[in-house]
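Database export, one record per block. Field names are fixed; values are copied verbatim from the stored entry.
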Amino acid sequence: MQKPSSFIRFGWAVALSCAGWLTAQAQPTPGTAIPLNDLSAFKPTAANWQITGSVRADLGKPNMLLTEKGTGVLVNVPAMSKKGQLLSGDQYNLQTLLQHGDADLELDYMMAPQANSGLYLQGRYEVQLRDSWDVKQPNVHDNGSVYERWDEKRPEGQKGYEGQAPRQNASRAPGLWQHMKISFQAPRFNAQGQKTENARVIRIELNGVVIQDDVEMTGPTRGATFETEQPTGPLLIQGDHGAVAFRNIRYVAYDKPRPNPNRSYVIGDRNAPQREPVDPILIDAPTNTILRSFMDVPGSATTDGKSMRVTHGVSVGSPDKVHYTYDLDKGAIVQVWRGDFLDATPMWHDRGDGSSRPMGMVQRMGTPMLFLSKLVSPQTTWTADTTGSGFRPKGYVLDPNDLPTFRYQSYGAMVDDKIRVLPNGQGIQREVSVTNPASGLYARLATGKSISDMNDGMFLVDGTEYVRIDNANGAKPIVRSAGDRQELILPMKDKVQYSILF
C-alpha cells in the first residue's frame, strides 16, 4: 500500500533496542543510555542510515541534513532519485534487533526542513515526527500526533480514523534539537492469546509540554509492519520520507503491567500530582493580548543555576500562537514560546502569588540583563544590572493592532523596542531604535553555551534557537566568550533589527 507523504514513523525510540531491553526485573531500571557508536543494535538496512558526530540543517534546503564524521548521532539521509525525488520502500526503514513491551522513552531528535519521520512502537503504533514549525492548529499528521488507523473499505474522506492530534504545537524549527518523552503501554493478552486490553500511549511530552495523555489504540496504525498485535515487537523508524537525526536516547523497560499515572492539576506545575485538584485558570490569546505579572525563570535559564523572579514582566500573546515575556526593569526579552498562552492559576487562585506561567514550548533567553551596555572594548564584561546606565523605563505605547512598543532611557538616549511575530509564526522580530546613541554602545543579541556562525547573518545558539541579523546598519556582529558561556554582541548605531527563530 502506498503511504501518504504525511505518514511518518516515530524514529526517535528506535535506537532503544539494546541488549538490556527485555531484562527481567521487579522494578523498572533507571534510564539507560543507548550508545550510538555503530549500527549494531539494528537489523541490516540500506545506506541511508549512518552514525555521525554532528549534524545541522540549512533552512533554505528542504529534506537535507549536513553531517560530520564521528559517533553519537543517528542520521537518516534519505535516498534520492536522479530527479531529486525521495525513493520509498520498506528497505529504507530501520528496525531494532530486540523487542519491547511496556516502555518509557526519552531522546533528542532533529528534523530537516519539510521532512517527516516517525517511530512505530512494536512496529505497529506510530507516533509522528514532522517539521510542523509553522502550524497553528496541529492535526493527526503533525509532530507528536498518534497517527490514524486506516481502512480502505470506508468511504472516501473517512478511511483514516482514531488518530489523535497533539494538544498544541510544541515543535521547534527544523535544524534545532527537540526533546521528547513517551510512556507506552503494550496490549494485554490472556493465557489463550486473546487480547484483553488495547495498547495505549500513556503520555507524550514534547519540549517540556504534555501533548498526549492516555490515548487508546484499538489496533495498529496505518502502514504498520505487523497487522496482528502481540505482547512485544521491534521499534521501527521510517527512513523514506525525510531527513532526521537522533541522539541521547534513553529507555526504561518494564517486565510487568504498571498502572496508568493518576495526575491532576498542580499550581505552577501542570505535570505533577496533587491531593486536591484545582480548576486551572488559563488565558488564551485569540487577539493580541497583554498581561502583566511576576514571571519565574527556572535555574536552568540563569548563569548561576538559581531560579529568579521577574517582578515587572509583561507577557504579550498572539493569535499566531507565538508569545513572549518582556522585563520592564531591564529592557530584556525573558522568553519566547510557541503554543498556548498563559496559565494564570498561580496568580488568581486563592490568595495567589502574582505569577503566571507560559503554557507552550518555551525558549528562554538566559538571565535577563540589559540589552544595551557601554563597553570600553568588545571584551569588556557585560553590565549585570542598571547601575551606571541611567536606565529609566517609560512603559509602552500601543499601535492600532494593540501591539506594544516598549520605551526606556539608557545611557542618556531614548530607546524604542518593537517586537513583532514573524510570518507563519516562525519566531519574533525585534527592532531597537536609539536616539543619539552614546559612544561605545553595544547590543547583546544572544547568550548561550555555544554560538555558531552559520553565515549570512544567521547564528545557531545551543542547537535550540537561531538568531538572524536582519539589519545592523553596517555593524559587524561579534561572538565572544563570557566565562563558560558565549555572547553575540553588536556595536550599536541608531538601529538594529534581528529575528529569533525557534
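Remark 1: The longest strand covers residues 65-76.
Remark 2: Residues 1-29, 262-275 have pLDDT under 50 and may be disordered.
End of record.
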